[in-house]
Amino acid sequence: QNAQPAIGTLSAAIYKVLHQGGFRPDFTAGHSFGELTALWAAGVLNEVDFYALAKARGKAMAPPADPDFDAGTMLAVKGDVEQVRAELANLPGVTLANWNSKNQVVLAGDKPSIAQAQEVLGSKGFSVIPLTVSAAFHTPLVGHAQKPFAQVIQKTAFHKPQARVFSNSKGAEHSANPKEIQAVLSDHILNPVLWKDEIEAIY
Hints:
Layout lengths: L2 H18 L6 E2 L5 H8 L5 H15 L11 E6 L2 H8 L5 E8 L2 E6 L1 H13 L3 E5 L11 H12 L9 E4 L4 E2 L4 H9 L8 H8 L1
Parallel strand pairs: 1-6
Antiparallel strand pairs: 2-4, 2-5, 3-4, 6-7
Helix pairs in contact: 1-2, 1-3, 2-3, 3-6, 6-7
């Protein structure tokens, strides 16, 4: 609830300093939450709506009040990504949430499943680093957030990009059609972040 609007505010402030210095982007892109900032920087969202969406996203993704609800957690893994993916077949409850590079991914799932993944993958020589997060983002464990956030998105005005903007849900450039961008963003928090594909598409 606090981190996401704070990240958005800091990112926008840094961008404005660059903009005042004469910087104009050929394209924009952002990792996970950063896609909102990228859409704002590309002119798809105005500033008021950008902050409103940042706040709405953080509020929606906060875990329910139920003390027994396991919002899950995340685990960064370094090593051969294809081998990691093969290991996932034997790790129920664990999904690939962020595909960041050719040798680094982030796994997500409920806390017992991620603890097991850490033990199994660590024993097989992978570098495993638990992440200090409040939930298993980009998985069904944040499914409670999708509908309320999508409802805010549907009420928000989206505009044609003024610069090329890339989607980490698609791993490719966003459409120039504001309605299509809006539709992709509505499911963004449930889909894995295909950052490797996005960077290769930009390249």
